[in-house]
């Protein structure tokens, strides 16, 4: 690889690279992906070993600070996060004021952006103590806001966090508990959600992380940068695909025309018809996260005693696509989003919450990248070039 910015200065050369298919915007020591071999590692550790042995907060620490925490470090980290879960009461009123039909992703992005107004003491990206406290606040409060976005969308009262519970269990209670009855966390759901969140924690320079870095490169604060990342994740070509997969499976089921008919429509490139949850800019092989998610889908549905025809449709769709030349030639395989929706549905989350769950999972990665960028002396404000293709200079007509 060459450092194109030095070369460009010397030669006046500009590269045009739609979608940054071949252009690195930074160096990074956080996540390694080999898309041809289907390899994903966090700080050198294979994702399969992380999924098997770690937990959400330990992996978050690993991504943010670079090494696995000691038992003491992890306990302190967990404790600090638990003690920052409460939101300012005005923040609850802020959520109240949003329309209940709003998409939970828009509510979440608005809430994270609003954190800049409530915590003006921790907005300086160059002050390590402020960066540290804003990291903790974000990890603690974003899941609470995500649960509020859910409660808001179903018209239920917001609960206060229960800091005696773990990160994931607290989140489940905030989503599925109510004020009238005690809530017991189902350990199957808790374990599966923890695993899914871990699998989402980082994925190097994807669109939302690149957005967080680009916004952060202007020295914008962490809350502002992460809320921009949430908005980037919302799109159906990125995190929004998990919601779109479920709509697609539901559409196939409702049409009664079978999976093959839908695949034909995809191959005929009918306007707006894609195999959602398939294909990836980097993976030209099975996404290793999709393998792990598929295992979880079977385990969770079996443990919860849920029979969902959508899982059968998903498996049939995968089988047909993997054996079809159209998909083989283009090296299109299931990505992480393909099976997650079926699991989230079995857990009881409404479809519109699926991308919000992705955002909670991805948060440590966004924070880790923002901090890495912020600490890197080579960082410059992100400012892409363009090739101007408009009109040459002309005189304004005198009328
Ligand atoms: N269904 C059908 N055809 C597809 C799909 C798909 N899901 N994905 C790519 N293709 C086809 C394209 O039509 C194109 O065909 P062509 O060469 O005949 O024109 C070829 O495969 C290459 O596709 P590109 O669009 O160039 O691939 P790109 O790397 O730009 O896009 C993307 C990657 C956006 C993920 C794409 O595969 C897609 O839209 N997938 C569906 C949405 C999705 O699942 N997104 C989640 C991605 S993972 C994540 O963000 C967590």
UniProtKB/TrEMBL annotation:
Gene3D superfamilies per the UniProt record, alphabetical: 2.20.28.60, Citrate Synthase, domain 1, Cytochrome P450-Terp, domain 2
Metabolic or biological pathway: Carbohydrate metabolism; tricarboxylic acid cycle; isocitrate from oxaloacetate: step 1/2
InterPro entries tied to this protein: Citrate_synth-like_lrg_a-sub, Citrate_synth-like_sm_a-sub, Citrate_synthase, Citrate_synthase_AS, Citrate_synthase_bac-typ, Citrate_synthase_sf, Citrate_synthase_typ-I
One of the record's GO cellular component terms: cytoplasm
Active site (record annotation): 280, 337
Gene Ontology biological process terms in this record: tricarboxylic acid cycle
Keywords: Acyltransferase, Transferase, Tricarboxylic acid cycle
Record's catalysed reaction(s): oxaloacetate + acetyl-CoA + H2O = citrate + CoA + H(+)
Gene Ontology MF, one: citrate synthase activity
Family statement: Belongs to the citrate synthase family.
This protein's name: Citrate synthase
Gene source species: Cryobacterium ruanii
């Amino acid at each position: 690889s060459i450092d194109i910015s030095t070369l460009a200065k010397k030669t006046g050369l500009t590269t045009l690279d739609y979608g940054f298919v071949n252009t690195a915007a930074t160096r990074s020591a956080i996540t390694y992906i080999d898309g041809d071999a289907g390899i994903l590692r966090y700080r050198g550790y294979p994702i399969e070993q992380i999924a098997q042995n770690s937990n959400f907060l330990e992996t978050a620490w690993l991504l943010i600070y670079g090494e696995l925490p000691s038992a003491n470090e992890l306990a302190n980290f967990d404790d600090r996060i638990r003690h920052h879960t409460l939101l300012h009461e005005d923040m609850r009123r802020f959520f109240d004021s949003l329309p209940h039909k709003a998409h939970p992703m828009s509510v979440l992005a608005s809430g994270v952006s609003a954190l800049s107004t409530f915590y003006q003491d921790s907005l300086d990206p160059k002050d390590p103590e402020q960066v540290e406290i804003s990291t903790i606040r974000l990890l603690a409060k974003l899941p609470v806001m995500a649960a509020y976005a859910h409660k808001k969308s179903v018209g239920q009262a917001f609960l206060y966090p229960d800091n005696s519970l773990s990160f994931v269990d607290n989140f489940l209670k905030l989503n599925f508990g109510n004020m009238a009855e005690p809530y017991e966390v189902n350990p199957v759901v808790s374990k599966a959600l923890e695993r899914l969140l871990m699998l989402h924690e980082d994925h190097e320079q994807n669109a939302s992380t690149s957005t967080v870095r680009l916004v952060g490169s202007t020295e914008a604060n962490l809350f502002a940068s992460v809320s921009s990342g949430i908005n980037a994740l919302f799109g159906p070509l990125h995190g929004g695909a998990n919601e779109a997969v479920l709509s697609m499976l539901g559409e196939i089921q409702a049409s009664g025309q079978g999976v093959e008919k839908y695949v034909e429509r995809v191959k005929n490139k009918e306007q707006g018809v894609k195999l959602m949850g398939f294909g990836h800019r980097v993976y030209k092989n099975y996404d290793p996260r999709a393998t792990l998610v598929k295992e979880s889908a079977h385990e969770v549905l079996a443990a919860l005693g849920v029979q969902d025809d959508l899982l059968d449709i998903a498996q049939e769709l995968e089988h047909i696509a993997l054996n079809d030349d159209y998909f083989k030639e283009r090296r299109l395989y299931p990505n992480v989003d393909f099976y997650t929706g079926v699991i989230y549905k079995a857990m009881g989350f409404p479809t519109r919450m699926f991308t919000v769950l992705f955002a909670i999972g991805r948060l440590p990665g966004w924070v880790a990248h923002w901090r890495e960028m912020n600490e890197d002396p080579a960082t410059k404000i992100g400012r892409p070039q363009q090739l101007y293709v408009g009109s040459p200079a002309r005189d304004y007509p005198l009328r």
